[in-house]
Design goal:
alpha/beta, 10 helices, 9 strands, globular
Length: 259
Amino acid sequence: MPLLEVKNISYSVEVKEERKKRFDILNDVSFEIEQGEILGICGESGGGKSTLAKVIAGIIKADSGRIILNSNSKEAERRSSPIQILFQNHGEVLNPFRKVQSIIDEALKISGVDESRLTNERENVLDSVGFQKELYQRRGMELSGGEQQRAALARLLATKPVLLILDEPFSAQDVESQLNLVKLFKQLNKVFNLTMICISHDLRILRNLANRVMILKDGEIVESGLTKEVFNNPQKDYTKFLLSAEALNLNHDELKSSF
């Protein structure tokens, strides 16, 4: 049985300029993800990737369709948020005015960690993301961008999620930082058997991270399969276009105006 089943999800918004007219963002999206998998979702900006992530996490409600989480863990069933998202904007997870230690401790307590185990659990979760001990007493706003991202990731891991969604985690990162993050996510996946969905427009990163990929265009899945198979032998024109754009190193605006 798959860990997550996404069945016939559709979502639309009303266009303010044109009363009662709705714009489709997701259209009948269906897929499954197995326990321990890393699924990559890619496609150009505006294709519905982040909206899909928010629907899966329950942040917004779909117009139709079902999200089914098949977790065998009784502990997970008791949690209010078994699915967590690491947003591109870390400020949605990390309070800039609070100390990192306080933020992590609060998340651990919410997940049911006893006071007697708090110190060990805090060190374990922060160490798992490579967050330095000398930074524990820093406030969010006192950290570098990379440190903020790791602290935000630790905050999510402290809640012991069943599924972690990464929303464009590599944007505004240099190549070395991107490689370090790929290594970190792979390590978390292996050590904790943590199932992940990684949303990224960067196909080169998904080649090295994801077991499977799903190509999303205008709110619809145009192609999906094992990463190597899809990228080495694409069947759909849009996938071929994305791979060509990757080879030419086109940016977002160039990519959008080319198709």
